[in-house]
Design a protein that fits this description.
With 377 residues, the protein is an alpha/beta fold. The protein is built from twelve helices and nine strands. The protein has two domains: 3-90, no CATH class; 106-373, Spore Coat Polysaccharide Biosynthesis Protein SpsA, Chain A (Alpha-Beta Complex), CATH 3.90.550. 35% of the residues are buried.
Length: 377
C-alpha cells in the first residue's frame, strides 16, 4: 500500500476509534471534501500514474492500487463492526454481541447444517459421504479452518426424549451446535437468526454458511468459491432468485404478510435460495447484534434477504451452489467444473436423500483429497 493510501487508512481508523464518525454511515459530501483535502497536497507530490512508464507497469500499478483500496474497505468495515459490537456490549446490546476478536477460535468458514430431531438417517447419510467424522473433522478445523456442525435447538419440552436422543448422538459424534431455540417448521427464520448469532459468538470466521441436511456439498470446491470473495466486505453468496409471493392460504410457502410486498402477483426481492448460502463475518455480526428487531417472514430465505436488503451488501449469484443432481452435476464434473452443492429443485433438496446421497457423492463428489488442497485460513 503506498504512503498516501496508508495515511488515508490511518486517518479513517483514528476517526472510527475516536467515535467522530457514525458507524456504517458515510460522512457528508462537505466533510468528505475537507477530509480528502487534508491529503491532496501530499498525494499530488506522488509520481503521476503512467508518467513515462510502460503499459504493463501502469496496469500493475492500477492492480496494486485496486487491491489496496479493497484491503482498506475491508479493514474499515471490520473496524466498524467491531466497534458496533463493543458499543452494543456497553449499552446492554440489542442482541447477542460477539466476544472480542482474538478470544475465539479462528476459522475460514463455519458450515451449519440445519437438521431436525427426526432426521438422524439424513445426518448419517452425510457422515457417510461429505461430512468428516471424528479425528478427520477435528483435523479439518485445525489445518484448514473449516468447521462443520449439525445445527439444532431443543424441543418444546426440554429434557424430554427428543432432546435426550440428540444428547446421546452428540456425545458419540461431537458434531453438533446446539441452539437456544425451540424447534418447529414454522420457526426456521428464528432458527437461522439464532444460528448466525451463536456461530459468531463461538468462532471468529471469515464466512458463515447455512445448508440443509438433504443437500450434497463438495467442501473443497465450496472453500475455493468462498476464497474468491474473502477480500470483499459484506458479501452475501448464494443462488439468487425472485419467486412469486404466494397469498393463497393453504399452499406451500404461503406468505401471510403478502400485502407488504405490493399488489397480488408481485415477486419477492432478489435473495439467495434457502438450500445453501453464505454470509461474511460483518453480516453475521450484524444479524447477531440486531436479532431481536429483525423481522421474520414465513420463509427463512426471504427473511435473510430482507435483513440484508437495506444494507451496503454485495449479492453474489454463484450458480455452482445450486447444481442439479446427476446427470447434471456428473456432466459438469466430467467437464472439469465440479459443483460446490447439488440438490433437486422439485424437492427443495435431494429427493429421497437418505437413499440417494451415497450414489450422488460417488457420481459428483470431488474426491477425498480435494478439501486438503483447497484454500486455507
Amino acid at each position: 500500500m503506498n504512503s498516501c493510501v496508508a495515511r488515508v487508512t490511518s486517518f479513517l481508523v483514528g476517526l472510527l476509534l475516536s467515535g467522530r464518525t457514525t458507524l456504517l454511515t458515510p460522512p457528508s459530501s462537505a466533510a468528505s471534501g475537507r477530509h480528502v483535502a487534508l491529503f491532496a497536497e501530499d498525494c499530488d507530490q506522488m509520481p503521476k500514474l503512467g508518467g513515462g512508464k510502460k503499459p504493463n507497469d501502469i496496469m500493475k500499478e492500477v492492480s496494486r492500487t485496486h487491491q489496496a483500496i479493497q484491503s482498506l474497505d475491508k479493514s474499515v468495515s471490520s473496524l466498524e463492526m467491531e466497534l458496533a459490537v463493543e458499543r452494543a456490549k456497553r449499552n446492554g446490546g440489542l442482541g447477542l454481541a460477539a466476544p472480542a476478536k482474538g478470544l475465539l477460535p479462528k476459522a475460514f468458514v463455519v458450515i451449519g447444517i440445519n437438521t431436525a430431531f427426526s432426521s438422524k438417517r439424513r445426518r448419517d447419510s452425510l457422515r457417510d459421504t461429505w461430512v468428516p467424522r471424528g479425528e478427520r473433522l477435528r483435523r479439518l478445523e485445525k489445518e484448514k479452518g473449516v468447521v462443520v456442525r449439525f445445527v439444532i435447538g431443543h424441543s418444546a419440552t426440554p429434557g424430554g426424549a427428543l432432546d435426550r436422543a440428540i444428547d446421546v448422538e452428540a456425545a458419540a459424534t461431537a458434531d453438533f451446535l446446539r441452539l437456544d431455540h425451540v424447534e418447529g417448521y414454522h420457526e426456521l427464520s428464528a432458527k437461522t437468526r439464532t444460528y448466525f448469532a451463536t456461530a459468531v459468538a463461538t468462532w471468529d470466521a471469515e464466512f458463515y454458511v447455512k445448508v440443509d441436511d438433504d443437500v450434497h456439498v463438495n467442501l473443497g470446491m465450496l472453500m475455493n468459491r468462498l476464497a474468491k470473495y474473502r477480500s470483499r466486505p459484506r458479501v452475501y453468496v448464494g443462488c439468487m432468485k425472485s419467486g412469486p409471493v404466494l397469498s393463497q392460504k393453504g399452499v406451500k410457502y404461503h406468505e401471510p404478510e403478502y400485502w407488504k410486498f405490493g399488489d397480488e402477483g408481485n415477486k419477492y426481492f432478489r435473495h439467495a435460495t434457502g438450500q445453501i448460502y453464505a454470509v461474511s463475518r460483518d453480516l453475521a455480526s450484524y444479524i447477531s447484534i440486531n436479532q431481536p428487531i429483525l423481522h421474520r417472514f414465513a420463509n427463512e430465505d426471504v427473511s435473510l434477504g430482507a435483513w440484508l436488503l437495506g444494507l451496503e451488501v454485495e449479492h453474489v449469484d454463484d450458480r455452482s451452489l445450486c447444481c442439479a443432481t446427476p446427470p447434471d452435476c456428473e456432466w459438469k464434473k466430467q467437464a472439469g467444473n465440479v459443483c460446490a452443492a447439488s440438490f433437486d429443485w422439485s424437492c427443495s433438496g435431494i429427493c429421497k436423500s437418505v437413499d440417494r446421497m451415497r450414489a450422488i457423492h460417488s457420481a459428483c463428489g470431488e474426491g477425498d483429497g480435494a478439501v486438503w488442497s483447497a484454500a486455507a485460513i
